[in-house]
Amino acid sequence: MFTVFNAAPEGHWQVTLVKPYRGETLPAVGSIAIAQSAVLPSGNDWHLTGVASHVRYVERAEKIALTSVQAGLGRNEATQAALIPIRKSQAWWDLTQEERRQIFEDKSRHIADSMKYLPAIARQLYHCRDLGQPFDFLTWFEYAPENAAAFEDLVGHLRGTEEWRYVEHEVDIRLCRN
Amino acid sequence: MFTVFNAAPEGHWQVTLVKPYRGETLPAVGSIAIAQSAVLPSGNDWHLTGVASHVRYVERAEKIALTSVQAGLGRNEATQAALIPIRKSQAWWDLTQEERRQIFEDKSRHIADSMKYLPAIARQLYHCRDLGQPFDFLTWFEYAPENAAAFEDLVGHLRGTEEWRYVEHEVDIRLCRN
């Protein structure tokens, strides 16, 4: 099942910002509606598609810790969101799994350092590298307004890690619930 | 870019066998043509689609060893082929990466024990779990007729491993070049 972020005049989420962090921006869009689709969407209308797949880097102890603390999507109070599509470089994908894990966690502490933002920031990762899309991942976050600063802190922290040296395209999309 | 195995009356590869190993079979098909496609095919005609993606389990030393010994597809003498679509169970995908690797290599020696069949058997793995397909992988092998017995030996060996306890759907398709 594909998750599709569609431009929609009456979308559930109003877009407040579209700004490139690295590489080209995306076309401006007013609102976004999130849909589940059994087929991979085509066509030229604004949409981003990904798949909520199995975990790639977390180890068992981390998975247990994350599961015990993380919040699900759709909380009433989480009226702000961020959609950050990311593409990593060919150099990243030429690494082996254990080399990627080493950079991801041993050097960049992606999981450990993100843990303190849970459950305030709810997260969902969608994979799209194998879907022939322009990005490798769509990262989606939901949080209450009082946690907006914490969210920006998390994003800023990740962007300073060694892992982020492999990010070659990234766009910030911020949203609030209509 | 998607790799599509299409039923085709004039396909490059003539199908000599379609036989389920575990689970349901696939409809009989006369010939198969292999195509590259920028879009994910839809429609009800016989086709299987996958993506030649980055490696998931091999470590650096294994990658170097494999690269030094493996053969590419399309060798003149490799007139026989096998297309074996495989789906693993939810229990497999609920494992973490390091647990899957442990079963895949530490217990099942998937890489190490397959190495002796190289370069006689050329292989390519296509991923399709995240494409909404009925299989997780399409495995493709090409070999000369004199290596057909070695190939069946390899397949039989893998099916005896602990890794294969997680395979819940698998179909044997054997082909020869037209």
Shape of chain A: globular
Mean pLDDT of chain A: 94
Number of strands of chain A: 8
Measured between the Cα atoms of the first and last residue of chain A, the distance is 25 Å
CATH topology of chain A: Alpha-Beta Plaits
Q: What low-confidence regions of chain A span 5 or more consecutive residues with pLDDT below 50? A: none
Q: With helices defined by DSSP (H or I, 4 residues minimum), what is the helix count of chain A?
A: 5
Element pattern of chain A in H and E: EEEEHEHHHEEHE
Summarize the main sheet of chain A. 8 strands, antiparallel
CATH architecture descriptor text of chain A? 2-Layer Sandwich
Strand content of chain A: 25-35%
Biggest interface, which chains?
Answer: A-B, 28 and 28 residues
Written description of the protein model:
2 copies of one chain form a homodimer. Chain A has 178 residues and is an alpha+beta fold. Chain A has a single domain (2-177), classed as Alpha-Beta Plaits (2-Layer Sandwich). The first copy, chain A, contains 5 helices and 8 strands, in the order ββββαβαααββαβ. The first copy, chain A, has helices at 60-69, 90-94, 97-107, 110-114, 148-159; strands at residues 2-7, 13-22, 31-37, 47-50, 80-88, 122-127, 137-143, 167-177. Chain A has an 8-stranded antiparallel sheet with strand order 4-1-3-2-8-5-7-6. In chain A, β2 and β3 (31-37) form a beta hairpin. The longest helix of chain A is centred in the last third of the chain and has 12 residues, at 148-159. Chain A starts with a strand and ends with a strand. The relative contact order of chain A is 0.26. The model of chain A has no long low-confidence stretch (mean pLDDT 94). Chain A binds chain B through residues 1-2, 38-40, 42, 51, 53-60, 63, 93-94, 96-99, 101, 127, 129-132, and chain B through 1-2, 38-40, 42, 51, 53-60, 63, 93-94, 96-99, 101, 127, 129-132.
